[in-house]
Amino acid sequence: MDDLLRAIKPAVFVGSSRRDLQAFPSAVRREIGQALFEAQLGDYPARAKPLKGFGSGVLEIRDNYDGDTYRAVYTVRFEGALYVLHAFQKKSTAGIATPQRHLDLVRQRLRQAEAIHRANKGVGA
């Protein structure tokens, strides 16, 4: 059991990502939560796909519910932790493309995650 607990990367929620995820319908929270847990264990969740334009290590989980699409973006770029960068409901405005404002927020929070990781390096991270 101790080996399993040591193998789980802590999840660090950046910005409002935890609050935003908690606002999702419970069925969506379960699906996305399960996928994030798999990522914390070092697995590659079946629902995860690389987020285009960010290179390796930034992934998106999608779940459809009641005609709506929900997304959570996370990164495993930084050793020893999983950073949840953004969670949002996709409003159908331009097909399947992620709106620019969401991509800009992911970029900003990726920089914040890097700063958090650097600040905590060696202190449990």
Describe the structure.
- The chain is an alpha+beta fold.
- The chain contains 4 helices and 5 strands.
- It has helices at 2-7, 17-22, 26-40, 100-120; strands at 11-13, 48-50, 58-65, 68-75, 82-90.
- It has a 5-stranded mixed sheet, sandwiched between helices.
- The model has no long low-confidence stretch (mean pLDDT 89).
Set down the secondary structure blueprint.
Layout: H1 2-7, E1 11-13, H2 17-22, H3 26-40, E2 48-50, E3 58-65, E4 68-75, E5 82-90, H4 100-120
Parallel strand pairs: 1-5
Antiparallel strand pairs: 2-3, 3-4, 4-5
Spans where pLDDT lies below 50 across 5 or more residues: none
What is the average of the pLDDT values? 89
Could you estimate the helical fraction of the residues in percent? 25-40%
Q: What's the total helix number?
A: 4
Strand order, largest beta sheet: 1-5-4-3-2
Which geometry do the CA atoms define?
A: globular
Briefly note the CATH topology name: YaeB-like fold
Number of strands: 5
What gap, in angstroms, lies between the N and C termini? 20 Å
Say which CATH homologous superfamily is assigned.
RelE-like
What is the correct CATH architecture?
2-Layer Sandwich
Please outline the major beta sheet. Answer: 5 strands, mixed
- Number of folding domains? 1
Helix-strand category? alpha+beta
